[in-house]
């Protein structure tokens, strides 16, 4: 019994001891946890703050991505709008040039008809005396016809004389009458033709006016889209004017522009970069792919650089203005030298297009050239257009072949080309340059062009 009591007592003591140890352990853990929680409080707050910052950054990134997406959409829309505008500009300008060409043909036919009318009238005037004499004879014969031999046989001598005179005169009278009838009929036809051609000319002139009115706002829209930084544009324009005053030649003008004008320098760099990129791209093309690219060099109105090298455009360039060529490359210039370009007798207020893709290296007045444009076509080639009354492109701007870049005046302003030729109408001077020297532009013009600027 005592042993049993001792065992029970010992077990109870052990349980109490264990409960005490457990309570102590729990208390210690509680204290330790509280202390740990107190120590971790600032860190938890910091984590919460960082999480809030992260959510803010994520929101900002989301907004930025949304803005970037909208900007990309705007860029796509802008590129599409530019493509549509370029296409509309080129198409409208082509129709305008075709109308100018038709008007020129009508004026030429009208001039020929008017000249023929003058010749016929002069011929009739010169034969007025003979015609009056024939008409007088016929009138007398009508009043007093030759005597009838049967009715009046005693007047046989008078009848014979009348017959002889009439026999001698009738062939001449008959021929003159036929010629007079022919001339009068031709005069009537010519005058009808003059009337019709004048009506056609009036229609073409009205069409020209309407097309020019439609083209003007499109050109203004293009320039507004390109000239967002108006102050910078004005500074470049003034810079170009100053450099033009200092330049002593076209070669010097190009060199000064590309050295001292930021816009012209960017244009030159863009041309060189485009040449390098195109050369690298073409190096990987097969001959078939290269020929395909050459077959339609002006097809894509959204292009931002020439699709093919300028040297590969021989026989493909459109004429920059409607009108006949009055002087060609290499012809005597009247001062003991030879022409370095060609001169086109353009229509009054006619539109001038860029004959090739390229960057504007100069735009503005220059010496006796009138308004001058220089297009950097890449590969060391430059196209010079001079004699216009107004240009509508800026230095550094990329232009497409067929795009309107200037307009002619009425011929009142005398330029070097009009003075040299003695022309009363506006003259467009066109010069191709390669590495600083003038070259013959003849091989580059499209052979199918009705104006035959290539010779």
TrEMBL record:
One of its GO terms (biological process) is proteolysis. The keyword Ligase does not apply. Residues 339-440 form the M23ase beta-sheet core domain. Gene3D superfamilies: 6.10.250.3150, Glucose Permease (Domain IIA) (2.70.70.10). Residues 47-116, 170-214, 240-284 form a coiled coil. Keywords: Coiled coil, Hydrolase, Metal-binding, Metalloprotease, Protease, Zinc. GO terms for molecular function: metal ion binding; metalloendopeptidase activity. Its cofactor is Zn(2+). Signal peptide: none annotated. This is M23ase beta-sheet core domain-containing protein.
């Amino acid at each position: 019994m005592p042993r049993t009591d001792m065992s029970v007592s010992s077990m109870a003591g052990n349980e109490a001891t264990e409960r005490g140890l457990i309570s102590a352990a729990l208390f210690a853990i509680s204290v330790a946890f509280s202390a740990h929680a107190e120590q971790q409080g600032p860190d938890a707050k910091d984590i919460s703050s960082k999480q809030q910052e992260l959510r803010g950054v994520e929101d900002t990134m989301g907004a930025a991505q949304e803005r970037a997406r909208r900007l990309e959409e705007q860029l796509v829309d802008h590129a599409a709008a530019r493509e549509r505008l370029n296409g509309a500009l080129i198409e409208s300008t082509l129709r305008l040039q075709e109308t100018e060409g038709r008007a020129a043909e009508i004026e030429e036919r009208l001039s020929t008809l008017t000249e023929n009318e003058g010749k016929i009238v002069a011929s009739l005037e010169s034969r007025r005396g003979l015609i009056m004499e024939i008409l007088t004879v016929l009138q007398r014969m009508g009043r007093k016809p030759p005597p009838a031999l049967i009715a009046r046989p005693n007047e046989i001598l008078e009848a014979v004389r009348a017959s002889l005179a009439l026999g001698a005169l009738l062939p001449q009278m008959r021929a003159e009458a036929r010629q007079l009838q022919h001339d009068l009929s031709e005069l009537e036809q010519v005058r009808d033709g003059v009337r019709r051609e004048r009506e056609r000319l009036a229609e073409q002139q009205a069409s020209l006016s309407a097309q020019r009115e439609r083209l003007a706002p499109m050109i203004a829209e293009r320039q507004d889209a390109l000239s967002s930084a108006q102050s910078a544009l004005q500074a470049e324009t003034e810079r170009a004017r100053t450099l033009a005053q200092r330049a002593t030649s076209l070669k010097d003008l190009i060199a000064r522009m590309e050295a001292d004008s930021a816009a012209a320098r960017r244009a030159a760099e863009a041309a060189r970069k485009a040449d390098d990129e195109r050369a690298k791209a073409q190096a990987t093309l097969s001959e078939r792919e290269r020929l395909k690219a050459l077959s339609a060099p002006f097809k894509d109105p959204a292009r931002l650089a020439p699709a093919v090298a300028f040297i590969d455009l021989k026989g493909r360039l459109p004429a920059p203005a409607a009108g006949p060529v009055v002087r060609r490359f290499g012809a005597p210039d009247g001062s003991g030298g030879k022409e370095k370009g060609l001169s086109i007798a353009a229509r009054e207020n006619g539109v001038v297009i860029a004959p090739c893709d390229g960057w504007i290296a100069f735009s503005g007045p220059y010496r006796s050239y009138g308004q001058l444009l220089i297009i950097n076509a890449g590969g060391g080639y430059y196209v010079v257009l001079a004699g216009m009354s107004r240009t509508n492109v800026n230095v550094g701007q990329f232009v497409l072949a067929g795009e309107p870049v200037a307009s002619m005046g009425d011929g009142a302003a005398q330029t070097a080309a009009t003075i040299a030729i003695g022309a009363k109408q506006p003259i467009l001077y066109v010069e191709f340059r390669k590495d600083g020297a003038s070259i013959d532009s003849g091989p580059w013009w499209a052979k199918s062009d009705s104006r035959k600027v290539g010779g």
